[in-house]
């Protein structure tokens, strides 16, 4: 069962095809592989500005419809994006979130995973009503920064413990406008 209205023009599919939307220019996409794209979201939470969306390139409405052969690549891109945010922003951690169906607060009918940079005591979930819609220039500046750091996705660094992670690269400071 689909929840998309008849004639739905999927904004995620548009961005996957390289076509902009009302909220995001196509250049907001900063990472692409055969199964996924990662883009700077067109809606930011003030406690966690510049969060990222990871979406499958194929149109999949929600987690229930996600093919197993796409689930692995999707989570790999989510993990790599979380590592990228710790490197690019110097954040203290990350959170991921994904919504399904109207009762689960899904409002775009294409599966997408939110990846948030997090800082100690940012109170992201307590401040979820505080949002900001960046203009395209702000979104593109963010995409440029993440694109620069995303080159590291293809060259994972290893920490002394053998795990890929932010400890192998120095902190780069907070994103402008944070909190």
Automatic annotation (TrEMBL):
Origin superkingdom: Bacteria
GO molecular function ontology, one term from the record: methyltransferase activity
Region (Disordered) residue spans: 154-179
Keywords noted in UniProt: Methyltransferase, Transferase
Annotated HIT domain residues: 16-125
The protein's Enzyme Commission number: 2.1.1.-
TM helices/strands, residue ranges: none
Motif interval(s): Histidine triad motif: 110-114
Alphabetical list of InterPro entries matching this protein: Histidine_triad_HIT, HIT-like, HIT-like_sf
Enzyme category, top tier: transferase
GO biological process, any: methylation
UniProt keyword Transmembrane helix, yes or no: no
PROSITE patterns cross-referenced by the UniProt entry: HIT_2 (PS51084)
Protein name: HIT family protein
Species this protein is from: Allokutzneria oryzae
